[in-house]
Request: fold
Amino acid sequence: MYYNQSRSGVFKGMNPRVTTVSILIMVLAVIAGAFHTDRLSSVLGTMRDFLTPFLEWYYVLVVAFLLFYMIWLGVGRYKNVRLGRDNEQPEFAFFSWIAMLFAAGTGVGILFWAVAQPIMQFQGNPFVAEGMSPEAAQVAMRLTFFHWGMNGWAIFSFVALVLAYFAYRKDMPLTIRSGVQPLLGKYTDGPVGDTVDILAAFATVFGIATTLGLGVQQMNAGIAQVFGLDVTLWLQLTVTFGIMAVATLSVVSGVKKGVRLLSELNFWLSIAVVVFLLLMGPTQYLVAMTLESAGAYIGNLFTMTFYTNATHDDGWQSEWTVFFWGWWLAWSPFVGMFIARVSRGRTFREFVMGVLLVPTIITMIWIGLFGGTALYQELFGDGGVSEAVNEDVARALFVTIEGMGLGIVGVIVSFGLIVLIGTYLVTSANAGTLVINTILSGGDPEPPTFHRILWGGILAVLTAVLLVAGGLETLQSAVIMAALPFSVVILGMSVGLTRSLHQERFAARMGARIEAPREPWADLDDAGNEPTPVSPDQRYKQN
Reply:
């Protein structure tokens, strides 16, 4: 059974209360952006400025906690707990699994930032005395790895693991409120549980809209670079609605068809681009810079995780870490639920190793090659990437390819990158639409087709409104604000998972197997009666 799912009417197959409130919130946001554009941008900016001093340490603590919590789950006493029945096998093969979680997780983002962020950090950051130097280049790569590495993936993997655990092992609906059921108890089915799902839907919508907005801006920059067209808002809006139309058609076909095939196509295209850069770029420098930066990232991970800008007043922490942690948090309901849907049958250890480490390694290779190529051009070549970033950050990727001096081959590669951005946008949009509807349907993994189409349209319109309202700055402010309330839900989910894990078997001393006492909320039978008392001695079962 799913939470409060309607059986008739326009909300058939959906939770009427959660769906109605969510639609109203999105409609109000669209109206505010369409008819009060300047005011919306101003309000979001003011809210961001007001909350920044708090978020500079609060988001740091939340993300640090999730990182260490996930490591404990992967190597601690619950590492052999399976996301499903004890003998259940994974639903998807390893390659398909990694391709889907990577494409949905960071595909669009690293295409946008893989060049732009290293170059912007190269120009200046709080950790080097002088920008645009070889030392600044290495620190820039290390900082970029940090914002795209294990800390961010800890957020995604935590939400995904909680959802998969309660859905596949506890047979609960696949939605956010299931993760706090041990904490809320009977209130999970009522208004409190509805509020949790509404906050998740709110964060998801703005997280996806931000990603789509960034990707559309980059596609526009690529089209302008390759075909000589102007960068215009109308072209961006056209691309937005075109992407969402394709994404909506894809999401109707479901995960095992449209989403999986698109994810694998993205993955192969990405590999082709990476091989091209490695072979045609400054190979020795790229390998050396990637390895050196990876070592610096690992060596400084603990210090960077707890960096809070206490001794600097330069805005770096707010512009970078607060934005990225807010973006990862806002996107975590979407990516977490999507990863949960494709992770059934894996153990905690397999899951943590796969979701926390593999995408991080792939991301570092990707950023090392793209960002390293741009840094090489700035340090040893003709430059030009820094100037392009200062003019329009979305142009950075394509100016870097042009700077490789490959003539028509470079044009072909740039066109291929435009296609790759488009396919990543479609993958993120269709997976996001499916996840939003899964939340609004009370956890139904196959929500009604009509509502999938409806929310595809809502996402397109909201993305367009945010682009009109001010572009990158407004997108960043919106996602940071959307993440804040959901971060509280995430902390509640950690309490819920910890309480539920007390029921799992774990290795005991003296060769015995102990089953921990069950929490009171889990001990009631189907009729709501108390169970027969069990003595402590009966909890021990000899092997």
In short: The chain has two domains: 16-498, 502-543. The radius of gyration is 23 Å.
